[in-house]
Amino acid sequence: MKVTIERAELLRSLSHVQSVVERRNTIPILSNVLIEAEAGGHVRIMATDLDLQVIDNLRANSVDAEGSITVSAHLLFDIARKLADGSQVSLETGDNRMTIKAGRSRFSLPTLPRDDFPVIVEGDLPTSFELPAKTLAEMIDRTRFAISTEETRYYLNGIFLHVADDDGGVLKAAATDGHRLARFTIARPEGAEGMPDVIVPRKAVAELRKLLEEATEGNVQIDLSPSKIRFTLGGEGGVVLTSKLIDGTFPDYSRVIPTGNDKLLKVDPKSLFAGVDRVATIATEKTRAVKMGLDADKVTLTVTSPDNGNAVEEVSSQYGSDAMEIGFNATYLKDILAQLNNDTVELHFADAGAPTLIREDEKSPALYVLMPMRV
Q1: Strands (E), 202-323
Q2: What residues contact residue 37 under an 8 Å CB cut-off, 6+ apart?
């Protein structure tokens, strides 16, 4: 194989795929990317960790000899990053080595044969629909902070996608770690009717969100079966991310969404975020709770720490029910408030021991539930 590629083009493509590759691997070839060059200047770069696979297509300046080879993903990426701007990079293989030349730089890296490189077999992906890239990015941003990191509850380690028939058909994305729940709802896209309920793993969500940074315009093609999902960004010749899905059953989260919370607090989410952030400065691992005292025109935020003293701040608000006090994990509350862009947020309370419903208003596509803490 012998190809010449613009450095910026090579770097962009490697940045799409190399983060899939784990730094430590017991199987050597999983540390590598697969590079395939075809006549006509078409080059494909692919990386996998056996559960997730990303393929990027790029244009080479020239393909003097077709072929395919695998080489260390992180090494090649680091080399491309450090080469001079605007340089032409030549990749040539022979004798189990890849020679990389650019300007006066020359590197020789060990390679492994293409035949040993594992490829995820997609099989049949019967459900197929498109979503605007911006909508998909928002769906991820509004929910992924609530994904659980507890490996024992593996079925919570991802975003749950499912369709429902309410409001003429909707697609919902949900994530929970048992302490908080995030849900985002959009109109059901054409082609998503009857799709299976799927859980997209945390790593696939993170890699997809990175790719969406560049592909903000246009649509993302989504194809899925009960066990695999494929996202195609940028159409033909774009980036393709394929992932296995989490094989488990997501809990019926609708049961924890409160419907009878009759105490309504309206407050500016930015002011509340800043207030919680300030008083939580003195919080420690043991005292992560922030106490909210609700009065007619203000919320009193209090954090008490046996080691660091206490902090109090008042935030103006609207509240029309009996005064009450409730405690929350400060970090969890901030995570939710950070998602809200409106000037007001609604917090619906029942009592100090019941889950709280948080949303911008009843028409908002995003809805959050937060469990209280004892304070």
Answers
A1: 219-224, 228-233, 239-244, 263-267, 289-294, 298-305, 309-319
A2: 1, 2, 3, 43, 60, 63, 65, 66, 67, 68
Domains of the chain: 2-116 (3.10.150.10), 127-255 (3.10.150.10), 257-370 (3.10.150.10)
What is the reported pTM? Answer: 0.93
DSSP state of 84: P
At a CB cut-off of 8 Å and minimum separation 6, what does 141 contact?
209, 339
Quick one: tokens of 346?
Answer: 């609604």
In whole angstroms, give the CA distance from residue 239 to residue 53. Answer: 11
Q: What is the pLDDT of residues 194-205, one digit of tens each?
A: 999 999 999 999
List residues bridging with 214 in a β-sheet. Answer: none
Question: Model confidence over 259-315: pLDDT tens digits?
Answer: 999 999 999 999 999 999 999 999 887 778 999 999 999 999 999 988 889 999 999
Q: What are the two backbone dihedrals, phi and then psi, of residue 314, each rounded to the nearest 5 degrees?
A: -110, 140
At 29, the pLDDT band (50, 70, 90 cuts) reads: very high
What is the CA 272 to chain-centroid distance, rounded? 25
Please say whether the beta carbons of 241 and 204 come within 8 A: yes
CA distance to 2, 6, 38, 87, 192, per residue, from 41 (Å): 11, 12, 6, 17, 36
